[in-house]
């Protein structure tokens, strides 16, 4: 029996750049993928937390991410979330690879956000935007840093401001971004009003951004809240915005930003959200002076698309050279 390749976080770092992850997501969305039909995530309770299972299938492969969520680990100095990704051949369902799921997640989440932000900037009613003048990120953890790095990999970014509650973490994030050649600094919530793109990547369960905090026509990407009881955006921002989600089906099941806005404003209807396939096809029309909000929860097809991309690059790198 052939050994199943084990793809470490170090291998992922070596073979898959943020720009390549964005390309893998874009290719999947343009390939005829039905995001609305992707499998639901499965949560299974455990004594120390829960399992999170994310199965998906593409024309070429099948895969599942198996993650554990252990809230108590933060007190022990251990990661709250750990994960592995299991990749299979689509036709025989034989195992093809075991991929570090934690690094896969920190790679694919900002890649999906970058696709959304790029699409919303291109749909700006004032004319297509091909860069970011002022990027403000609420949050100072790994996802905050990776979102900046991924956006900067596909779009020119002039300045970056990191806003967080813990000065030491903010300083560390700023230092990391500066080492990567970005013009980054620390700021506060008032900086969001001058930004053309705002990313919320926080662990807060209550809103951190309202309509008054963003400029007319700004693009907001809210990626930190997971579950119907958690939200990063105030209802007034969600109600005023043009909305894009990964898929309407997953948003109904899990998006707390949308559910919270609906609950806080009975009798007022939200704008009908577009999904990422529609955005990539250029079918999203933004309203003048209205903010645009992308709010994501994470979907299984995203992990599969990036995992396949990693394995394809790995195969090309390890294939023997042809001789003539």
Automatic annotation (TrEMBL):
Cellular component GO terms held in the UniProt record: cytoplasm
Record Gene3D superfamilies: NAD(P)-binding Rossmann-like Domain, ornithine cyclodeaminase, domain 1
Coiled-coil segments on the chain, per record: none
Cited InterPro entries: NAD(P)-bd_dom_sf (IPR036291), ODC_Mu_crystall (IPR003462), ODC_N (IPR023401)
Highest taxon in the source lineage: Bacteria
Protein name per its UniProtKB record: Ornithine cyclodeaminase family protein
Protein's organism: Microbacterium oleivorans
Upper lineage: Bacteria, Bacillati, Actinomycetota, Actinomycetes, Micrococcales
């Amino acid at each position: 029996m052939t050994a199943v390749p084990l793809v470490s976080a170090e291998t992922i770092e070596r073979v898959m750049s943020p720009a390549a992850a964005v390309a893998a997501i874009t290719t999947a969305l343009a390939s005829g993928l039905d995001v609305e039909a992707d499998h639901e995530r499965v949560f299974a309770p455990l004594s120390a937390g829960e399992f999170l299972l994310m199965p998906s299938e593409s024309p070429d492969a099948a895969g599942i991410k198996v993650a554990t969520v252990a809230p108590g680990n933060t007190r022990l100095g251990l990661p709250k979330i750990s994960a592995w990704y299991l990749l299979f051949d689509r036709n025989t369902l034989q195992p093809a690879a075991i991929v570090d799921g934690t690094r896969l997640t920190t790679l694919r989440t900002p890649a999906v956000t970058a696709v959304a932000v790029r699409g919303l900037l291109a749909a700006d009613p004032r004319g297509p935007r091909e860069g970011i003048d002022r990027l403000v990120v609420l949050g100072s953890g790994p996802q905050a840093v990776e979102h900046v790095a991924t956006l900067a990999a596909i779009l020119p970014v002039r300045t970056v401001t990191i806003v967080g509650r813990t000065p030491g973490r903010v300083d560390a994030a700023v230092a990391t971004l500066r080492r990567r050649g970005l013009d980054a600094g620390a700021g506060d919530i008032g900086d969001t009003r001058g930004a053309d793109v705002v990313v919320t990547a926080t662990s807060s369960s209550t809103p951190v951004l309202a309509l008054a905090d963003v400029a007319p026509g700004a693009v907001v990407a809210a990626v930190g809240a997971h579950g119907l009881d958690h939200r990063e955006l105030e209802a007034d921002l969600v109600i005023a915005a043009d909305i894009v989600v990964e898929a309407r089906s997953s948003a109904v099941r899990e998006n707390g930003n949308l559910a919270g806005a609906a609950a806080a404003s009975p009798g007022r209807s939200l704008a009908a959200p577009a999904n990422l396939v529609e955005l990539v096809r250029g079918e999203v029309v933004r309203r003048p002076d209205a903010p645009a909000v992308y709010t994501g929860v994470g979907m299984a097809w995203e992990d599969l698309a990036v995992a396949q991309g990693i394995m394809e690059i790995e195969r090309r790198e390890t294939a023997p050279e042809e001789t003539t």
